[in-house]
Structure formats: structure tokens, C-alpha cells
From TrEMBL:
The keyword Transferase applies. Residues 5-145 form the Reverse transcriptase domain. Keywords: Nucleotidyltransferase, RNA-directed DNA polymerase, Transferase. Signal peptide: none annotated. InterPro entries: DNA/RNA_pol_sf, Rev_trsase/Diguanyl_cyclase, RNA-dir_DNA_polymerase, RT_dom. It comes from the Eukaryota. This is Reverse transcriptase domain-containing protein. The lineage of its organism: Eukaryota, Viridiplantae, Streptophyta, Embryophyta, Tracheophyta. Gene3D superfamilies: 3.30.70.270, HIV Type 1 Reverse Transcriptase, subunit A, domain 1. GO terms for molecular function: RNA-directed DNA polymerase activity. It comes from Tanacetum cinerariifolium (Dalmatian daisy).
């Protein structure tokens, strides 16, 4: 079992109550959903062999992080924090592949969204447009109403 041999990552996930507190009271929000989050994170070439599996069509190894790895959630959150480090808590919040952009005015929220989308483009981070909501006055974040 691969998970038994993996050194555990103790990177902290954000505290939901603190995130919700920072989101509260803004006039406008944009809620975006990441596309196949884990699969956007490459596995280092020397570690790919550890994910090898065999099926009737041959032997294969994953090139991107897969669901089920014990460190996948924390690795993904660490990547999101690194990508958006200068925006988190100021203009947006990130919990795994759920992105919340906010602003006290329409124009501020729009500027914050533009900056976030530029960062996604620059880092080739995919989003699911059909599951995203733009320039709304309220919404549901991690099961809680803003």
C-alpha cells in the first residue's frame, strides 16, 4: 500500500470559521471551482514509478497526483497557497479547489477577479466555468451562506 510508505505531510488546511469570517460583509463575490484539482499537480519523475499499476493493457504509472493518496489534499492546498499567496485573506479565499473572490464594490471585486484569473492563466490552473458564479451578492461557501 503506497499510503503506508509515504511520509505524512502535516501542512495545515485553512480554518473554515476564519475563512467565513473574512468573507462576511463584502458586497460582491465570485465563486469558482477548480477543474480536476489533484490531476493538475504533476508527480516528480522519480516518484512516478511508485504509482505503477498493471492492467490487461500493460504497466502504467501516474504522471499527475491522484485521488486516494494520503497527502493529496495537503499537497494541493500547499500549491494553491503558493500560487495565490499574495491574494489570500486580502482579495480571495481558497479551500482546496473552491475559490472565493470578494470585494466591497463591484469594481473592486471585478479587479480582484481579473487578478485571480490572470494568475490561473499564468499557472495553467483550470477552472470549471459551469460551476462558477460571478458578481453575486451572496452564495454558499463550504456549505455555509455568505
Amino acid at each position: 500500500n503506497l499510503n503506508e510508505d509515504i511520509r505524512k505531510d502535516h501542512f495545515p488546511l485553512p480554518f473554515m470559521d476564519q475563512m467565513l469570517e473574512r468573507l462576511a460583509g463584502n458586497e460582491y463575490y465570485c465563486f469558482l471551482d477548480g477543474f480536476s484539482g489533484y490531476f493538475q499537480i504533476p508527480i516528480g519523475p522519480k516518484d512516478q514509478e511508485k504509482t505503477t499499476f498493471t492492467c490487461p493493457y500493460g504497466t502504467f504509472a501516474y504522471k499527475h497526483m491522484l485521488f486516494g493518496l494520503c497527502n493529496a489534499p495537503r499537497t494541493f492546498q500547499r500549491c494553491m497557497m503558493a500560487i495565490f499567496h499574495d491574494m489570500i485573506e486580502k482579495t480571495m479565499e481558497v479551500f482546496m479547489d473552491d475559490f472565493s473572490v470578494f470585494g466591497n464594490s463591484f469594481s473592486t471585486c471585478l479587479t480582484n477577479l481579473e487578478n485571480m484569473l490572470k494568475r490561473c492563466k499564468d499557472t495553467k490552473l483550470g477552472l470549471i466555468w459551469e460551476k462558477s458564479h460571478f458578481m453575486v451578492k451572496e452564495g454558499i461557501v463550504l456549505g455555509h451562506k455568505t
